[in-house]
Specification:
Elements (H helix, E strand, L loop, with lengths): L2 H13 L4 H12 L32 E4 L2 E4 L13 H9 L12 H14 L10 H16 L6 H15 L8 H17 L3 H21 L11 H21 L2 H4 L2 H17 L21 H10 L11 E4 L4 E5 L3 E6 L19 E5 L2 E4 L11 H7 L7 E3 L7 E2 L3 E2 L5 E9 L2 E8 L11 E7 L3 E8 L5 E7 L4 E6 L2 E6 L2 E7 L4 E8 L7 E10 L3 E8 L5
Antiparallel strand pairs: 1-2, 3-4, 4-5, 5-6, 6-7, 8-15, 9-10, 11-12, 12-13, 13-14, 14-21, 15-20, 16-17, 17-18, 18-21, 19-20
Length: about 550
């Protein structure tokens, strides 16, 4: 089969899942460009934002900034759209997250200068800053910041109305998901802050979208439907801020939704607890990294400040059936198992081919880790981080379990089925399978059985018939690894040993990288266990104490 035909099939298997509105609006927005009518400044409502300010500082002077662990310079108007910077870095530049950062009040004069520079140097509908997602995040930050000032120049409110109008003409119906939620949140914030007919229209539009999207995007077990713990944190924080806005702004319209928003948020908080490692940070399934979303503990603290009640589930086995993740928490270790689908069929952009992967911590030390995410965009490294081999699961004949491609695309994708989840006599047993390889050339089903006992984890991988396969097992970079034989390696820290034993299959240590934050790649080791008889038994044994 020629490469052209392969690509055509890949595109077909990607597009066939899309909703009609995604295709329609993608074409519509390509053919039409938003235009902003002349607006007048608007008075503002008299409320003051009192939410938490937790973002790290990112603006250090009128020309010095840092995003995604990468410094930058904005000395000239051209720097707002610098071609040498990645799209994601430029987006972050236009978010103005520093307005909601630690000690932001101490940088009032600096913020005022940079805001006015942005208004003067970014004319309506030109450049990255006028794309709908950066508009959305910037508007929320500007509203919060402006509400705390004794007065604001008319040009600020005029600019916010212009941005809201531009946003209303390019709402991301072609993307949906977290982008659409962010659009709606921004319109709601502007509408609740400014007076006038135009602001009221934005408020109602934002709330109408939120009413539909909250039901669509939060699953019955509380998970955000894109199935990324990081994006779950982002959307949950958005929901908490909307609850805070309803209380703070005293809007009759927003108060009508408070009870429902609180109910959804409480479920989402419980789900988040089940996906956090003992070190206090989230697990790395699908697009996930530390430092983008708020820390879990900050989210829980904010929820408590808002008076939300959420259950702390102390069961040894927690299974989130709607989203497809299970957590085993025994005395010495915690394991999180992914038996989820890649996400909503029409929106798998943040999916990795990580089906039936797992992560494991001993005490507060992460031991087995998925790759994490250090970058977006279209590159070989972006693709590598999304492929199955970057996760703790089985690759068959060198092929990923789902056809991830480009930066945010998935063609043929794996569907999972949880066959068993039980806890009995101190042992947790999880069994799940997926059909991702059945749809591709290997034509096999992968079934994984994970048995968690007090001092060891036994993993049995079964393919429906024999194929060349490899179990990839990624080790946290803080740990030392020593290979003792063809079938055994030891993971060491502070004199404590943890053994990985492969039954009758050759085990190899290889160099790899782990990506805990955007812009960061850390050298680590991974274990590769090859087998070709359709079955692999792997044992992870805790030899002595805790790591």
């Amino acid at each position: 089969m020629s490469n052209r035909i392969k690509m055509a099939l890949k595109v077909f298997h990607t597009l066939k899942y899309l909703k009609f509105q995604q295709i329609y609006y993608r074409v519509f927005y390509r053919l039409t460009k938003p235009k902003v009518s002349k607006v007048t400044s608007s008075s503002r409502k008299k409320w003051i934002w009192g939410g938490l300010e937790l973002n790290p500082q990112s603006i250090f002077s009128e020309s010095t900034v840092e995003f995604l662990n990468q410094p930058g310079d904005i000395s000239t108007p051209l720097d707002w759209n610098c071609p040498s910077k990645t799209k994601l870095w430029l987006y972050n530049l236009h978010y103005f997250d520093d307005l909601s950062a630690h000690d932001s009040h101490e940088r009032y004069d600096l913020h005022r200068v940079v805001i006015e520079r942005w208004i003067d140097e970014n004319p309506p509908c030109l450049g990255n800053g006028w794309e709908p997602y950066p508009i959305s995040l910037r508007l929320v930050n500007w509203v919060k910041w402006c509400s705390k000032q004794k007065s604001i120049p008319p040009k600020y409110s005029r600019s916010m109305l212009e941005q809201a109008e531009a946003l209303s003409k390019q709402i991301e119906y072609h993307i949906l998901g977290n982008h659409l939620f962010a659009n709606a949140k921004a319109l709601t914030f502007v509408g609740a802050y400014l007076d006038g007919v135009q602001a009221e229209r934005y408020l109602r539009l934002g709330v109408d979208i939120l009413e539909k999207e909250i039901s669509e995007q939060f699953l019955e077990d509380g998970a955000h439907f894109e199935l990324s713990p990081m994006y779950h944190e982002i959307l949950l924080w958005d929901l908490l801020e909307l609850i805070d806005l309803a209380n703070t702004s005293d809007s009759d319209l927003l108060r009508n939704y408070l009870d429902r928003w609180k109910t959804v948020a409480e479920k989402a908080l419980s789900w988040l607890q089940s996906m956090v490692h003992p070190d206090g940070e989230v697990s790395f399934f699908n697009d996930a990294a530390i430092g983008i979303a708020k820390k879990p503990q900050d989210i829980f603290s904010y929820a408590q400040k808002l008076g939300l009640l959420f259950e702390i589930d102390c069961k040894k086995l927690i299974t989130n059936f709607a989203s497809g993740y299970s957590r085993v928490a025994l005395d010495d270790y915690t394991l999180i198992f992914d038996h989820a689908n890649v996400g909503p069929d029409y929106l798998p952009g943040h999916a990795h081919a990580d089906t039936l992967s797992f992560e494991l911590s001993i005490g507060t030390q992460r031991v087995f880790v998925n790759s994490g995410t250090s970058l977006y965009g279209v590159s070989e490294e972006r693709l590598r981080q999304r492929e199955t081999s970057a996760h703790n699961t089985i690759v068959v004949e060198g092929i990923s379990s789902s056809q991830v491609w480009s930066g945010f695309r998935v063609a043929k994708r794996a569907y999972s089925k949880l066959k068993m989840a039980k806890f009995d006599d101190g042992c947790a047993l999880l069994v799940a399978s997926h059909d991702g390889y059945l749809k591709q050339h290997p034509k096999v089903t992968h079934t994984r059985k994970v048995e968690c006992l007090s001092n060891r984890v036994e993993i049995k991988d079964e393919l429906s018939h024999a194929k060349a396969a490899c179990f990839h097992l990624h080790i946290h970079p803080e740990l030392d690894v020593v290979q003792n034989s063809d079938y055994e390696c030891e993971i060491l820290k502070h004199g404590t040993r943890l053994c990985v034993l492969a039954s009758k299959s050759i085990l190899q240590l290889k160099d790899s990288t782990w990506h805990p934050e955007f812009g960061k790649s850390v050298a680590n080791k991974k274990v590769e266990i090859s087998f070709d008889n359709g079955s692999l038994q792997t044992e992870i044994r805790m030899i002595k104490g805790l790591v």
